[in-house]
TrEMBL record:
This is Inositol-tetrakisphosphate 1-kinase. It comes from Cyclopterus lumpus (Lumpsucker). Residues 1-69 form the Inositol-tetrakisphosphate 1-kinase N-terminal domain. PANTHER family: INOSITOL-TETRAKISPHOSPHATE 1-KINASE (PTHR14217:SF1). One of its GO terms (molecular function) is ATP binding. Belongs to the ITPK1 family. 1D-myo-inositol 1,3,4-trisphosphate binds at K28, H124, K156, N254, G258. ATP binds at residues 76, 114, 145-156, 171.
Length: 293
């Protein structure tokens, strides 16, 4: 694309209308959207992008991914409602894909506390709570997610259009159900689950580790349903497998993840863009609101 002068980096300090026209716009504005709630500079950058007015004037332009779909996933409450609906959609087809339990007041033996906002630097700051007294350590608005012992293994599914890739990462180690006297553990999910992570929180003995990969059929069914529900093409799903029930559990949906460990990412992205443009040229291409379908 660069050799043929087909690729242009958008300058967010200038109105979008003066930089096009574009066939496809690939963007990751999630952090800008979050920061725009409190930062005037981010508000201006978002205003300059003018996606809605630009797309209205250029309906053939494809947006990867639609802003309304991305904005919905910035709120973990909305994200978890999607997971709940997902479980019902997959019931019967794939009963081994539950979603974890989320609410304001629910408190299982152990719980992970996350910020309500799903993106930005603070969204990676989490805590593991072992008792009701630990609730005094949390700072709302936040969500509580029941903790499932999963052998310190996180399965990250990266989606690029109709392709997906599953990568194994480190995760929190197992904690016994009787550990109610432990103090709240604060951690950063990036530091725990990066490929190069080496933390005491991820250390697990050989006899408790569960390294079995998730069922390829279950992951394919999950990704297919999520693409329909989200209307997005570039997203990730975090999965864990219970060491006790061997059940696959969805714990997060990520907007335009880093795709670390996916060597085919750029070729897959280009392939998806070509597919979208071919559909558009054939007269059956998706609109900006349904790009991920």
């Amino acid at each position: 694309c660069r050799k043929q002068s087909l690729l242009l980096q958008i300058d967010l300090t200038r109105p979008l209308v003066h930089q096009g026209p574009f066939d496809v716009i690939v963007h990751k504005l999630s952090d800008v959207i979050v920061e725009a709630e409190q930062d005037s500079q981010s508000q201006q950058l978002l205003a300059n992008f003018q996606v809605r007015s630009y797309v209205s004037a250029h309906p053939a332009t494809v947006l990867l991914d639609p802003l309304p779909a991305m904005t919905r996933l910035l709120d973990r409450f909305a994200s978890y409602r999607i997971m709940s609906e997902l479980r019902e959609s997959l019931r019967g087809e794939c009963d081994r894909i539950p979603t974890n339990t989320f609410s304001f007041l629910f408190f299982p033996p152990h719980a992970v506390c996350k910020t309500r906002v799903a993106h930005g630097s603070l969204s990676h700051e989490m805590s593991l709570i072992f008792s009701g007294g630990g609730l005094e350590d949390i700072r709302p608005p936040c969500v509580l997610q029941s903790f499932v012992n999963h052998g310190a293994v996180l399965h990250k599914v990266f989606v690029v259009g109709d392709r997906h890739f599953c990568v194994e990462r480190p995760s929190l180690k197992n904690f016994p159900s009787g550990a109610c006297d432990r103090k709240t553990i604060f951690f950063n999910s990036h530091e725990v689950s990066k490929p190069e992570s080496n933390s005491d929180l991820t250390a697990v003995s050989n006899h408790t580790a569960s390294r079995a990969p998730p069922s390829s059929e279950a992951v394919a069914a999950l990704v297919g349903e999520l693409r329909v529900q989200l209307g997005m093409a570039l997203f990730g799903v975090d999965l864990i497998i219970s060491i006790h029930t061997h059940t696959l559990t969805v714990i997060d949906i990520n907007i335009f993840p880093g795709y670390e460990g996916v060597p085919q990412f750029f070729s897959s992205l280009l392939s998806h863009i070509e597919s979208v443009l071919d559909q558009r040229q054939a007269g059956g291409g998706p609109s900006a609101a349904t790009t991920g379908l």
